[in-house]
Design goal:
Layout: H1 2-10, H2 12-17, E1 54-58, H3 68-71, E2 77-79, E3 84-87, E4 97-102, E5 112-121, E6 123-132, E7 146-150, E8 165-171, E9 183-188, E10 198-200, E11 206-207, E12 231-238, E13 247-253, E14 256-264, E15 274-280, E16 290-300
């Protein structure tokens, strides 16, 4: 303890925690797929909120006004209330969904609903049904999906392993990608090269950085969602044990594992945990009005999977692989 105190006093302890770690040599466990998660035992998500591993579930059926997003106590904040509404004409299940509208604008717009976790977590699964309008396009640098964070307070800073992290699963179109862009992760972590986050793709490509996903990473085809279809998205964020490079981010589309990034260092202290989630549809400008709908949100500490009807599940048909 005396030696540790000397290190802290001299600043060397903080420096040592920032040194790169060796790639984690142990192969990570296989991830589940299909209708093998929590939802399989809760057809149409009925009673899913009572499952011991479920932290929160929202079918968006109980709201009649935007103010009830926070008034209900389910969420701590929402952004751009004028762009949010509950839509009874388009929904996945039940009788309405949450619609977020990205207006035609040259400026940045942040549309989101925000929930703080009732208990901070080292590992989190987040599942939601989402639908892009059929001609969704032209959003510049979009943040339009599922976000999981720890102690995040804003962009333009490189995390130091003790202060914050961010994972956004989103669709931004770059180069010749099909609209609305390949599903990928936008991530803030201590080893990023820039003050802004990195974009991680399913095939292993990294933009705005040079992250390595370790010896067990499996490159997968990049996938873009079919606009106009309801799609089940699920994301896993697993924080690393301090001193071990065993952090992980994974994404499922309609129960198929489409991305699995491994060998991640998110933190150097165990006190930094997952504390907040968001659903988003924003960006730094939009060439036209672009709507996105959300329905049947669940967050849990184990795999959730697509909603079960109690019938034999069908294979997904709305995958679009990179040529």
């Amino acid at each position: 303890m005396k030696f540790k105190n000397v290190l802290i006093a001299s600043g060397l302890f903080a420096l040592l925690t920032m040194l790169p770690l060796e790639a984690y040599s142990q192969a990570p466990p296989l991830l589940p797929e299909g209708n093998t998660g929590i939802s399989a035992s809760h057809p149409n998500d009925t009673g899913i909120e009572s499952h011991p591993n479920v932290l929160f579930a929202d079918d968006f059926e109980s709201y009649s006004s935007v103010s009830q997003i926070t008034g209900s106590g389910n969420y701590v904040n929402y952004y751009q209330g004028s762009n949010l509404t509950f839509d009874s004409s388009i929904y996945f299940n039940g009788s309405q969904s949450l619609r977020m509208r990205m207006p035609s604008t040259g400026s940045e717009v942040s549309n989101a609903i925000v929930r703080d976790l009732s208990s901070e977590q080292d590992l989190l699964f987040m599942r939601v049904y989402a639908r892009y309008q059929p001609d969704y396009r032209g959003v510049n640098s979009a943040h339009n999906g599922l976000r999981i964070t720890g102690n995040y307070s804003g962009p333009g800073r490189r995390p130091d392993g003790t202060d914050f992290f961010l994972v956004n699963i989103e669709n931004s179109k770059w180069d010749s990608e099909p609209e609305p862009g390949y599903t990928h992760a936008y991530v803030y972590h201590p080893e990023q090269d820039d003050i802004y986050g990195e974009h991680w793709y399913a095939d292993g490509r990294v933009t705005n950085g040079s992250q390595s996903f370790g010896p067990h990473f499996v490159a997968r085809p990049n996938v873009a969602p079919n606009r106009g279809d309801w799609i089940c998205y699920e994301v896993l964020v697993q924080l690393n044990a301090p001193g071990v490079r065993d952090g992980r981010v994974a994404v499922w589309q309609d129960g198929d594992l489409i991305a699995d990034w491994q060998n991640i260092r998110f933190r150097d202290v165990s006190s930094l945990k997952i504390d907040q989630i968001q659903l988003e549809n924003g960006g730094q400008g939009s060439s036209q009005q672009n709507d996105k709908w959300y329905d049947n949100l669940v967050i849990a500490t184990s795999y959730i999977g697509p909603m079960s009807s109690g019938a034999v599940p069908k294979a997904p048909t709305n995958l679009q692989a990179e040529p």
